[in-house]
Amino acid sequence: MSSSVAMASRAIVDLTRGAALTSGDVGALVRQVTELAATVLGVQRTSVWRFEGQGRALRCADLYDAGSRSHRVAPELVAADYPLYFAALRDARVIAAVDAQSDPATAELTAPYLAPLDIRSLLDAPIWHDGGLEGVVCHESVGARRDWTAAEAAFAASMGDVVSLALQTRARLTAQAALQEATRLDAEGRFAAGVAHDFSNILQAVRARAEIMGLRGDASVASQVAPLLHAADRGQALVRRLTDYARTREPQVAVVELGAFLTSLAPLAADVLGTKRRLVVTPPPAPCAVRVDPLLLERALINLIANARAATAADVGVVEMSAELAGSLPRALRGRGDFVRVEVRDNGVGMNEETRSQIRDAWYTTRGGGTGLGLAIVQSVATGVGGAVVVDSELGEGTRVSVFLPLTEPPAP
Ligand SMILES: Nc1ncnc2c1ncn2[C@@H]1O[C@H](COP(=O)(O)OP(=O)(O)OP(=O)(O)O)[C@@H](O)[C@H]1O
Ligand SMILES: [Mg+2]
Question: What is the pTM of this model?
């Protein structure tokens, strides 16, 4: 090893105790691993790769170039082209290929990868997650052959273990957060359903009594009764919101093709928006299907449209509703497959920091007539199917609410 064994041990201890690992920040940890491993092993290139698309592609998460001290990513590789390499990775704690271009475990990589980059020796360690091969950490010697020592091989294997540990930590933290969120929403849903039920009965009694008074009384009584009935109706509207919120607990999940869905939702969305604001609906450019309760998704999007209406001014307000395959994902969803991003954007008043930090709480509202349940409904619809909601908003700059839903195969025609 170009550095001492003590330095290698120190490096491993620092990584395992560091914030990146304990907080499950896999991206940051991977960059630390590549940089550290390049220094400790004295190699020119180190990289971390992960399987994507059900194991079909091997995607570079980070490539560190020791010469230029820079991080970048290498082009994706087709996993099926390297069966012997992956079989060797599955079997061994580490692949230590001194002459990588002729070693049976790594020779498949010669023409597309090793020869063009003049990589002579490879020290590759598997990354395991949930009992499966998840990726690989590569240490590459460029231009010169390296006779890897047992200590170097052990160090490389630990780098694979550290990344595996980070993946495990992230999965555990995400599961914990999802459980807490589900428990919170469940408790709120039950509470809301209970309140709605009892409140509805009381309102019906009030309304019935007021109607009788109105029928029996003279004109002066009737004028007193009208506001009573109006208040009771507003109460019933609140009950409906509560019931909506509580109902998000029992979804009827189906495959929803978003192109057709958005197009059919457009007239209702336009009604909610009214004639003084412009609605632009952009269906996804390619077929995009998600698994979700269509009624709940409709409710969620209509809530977002209603929020956009409240936030925008008449005659200048523009509200856009669109869907497309998500390019980048919020951290909590990364590594969990492909997602569709359904968006509602407006050019309205936007939100300040205080509002942004509280919008996820049920009952939080800045509007006189609001209940503060709209965004909570949207949130529970998304998390209920393993998705997430991201709100981007600046004061005076409008608002974009992105609902991420897991992509699924479209229904058979
Ligand atoms: N598009 C938006 N632009 C600006 N602020 C928004 C937007 N959407 C939501 N907000 C802010 O978030 C708060 C919470 O929204 P939410 O939909 O949960 O409740 P609400 O609209 O106030 O009431 P409800 O939807 O129950 O009638 C709003 O009161 C508002 O301050
Ligand atoms: Mg609302």
Answer: 0.56
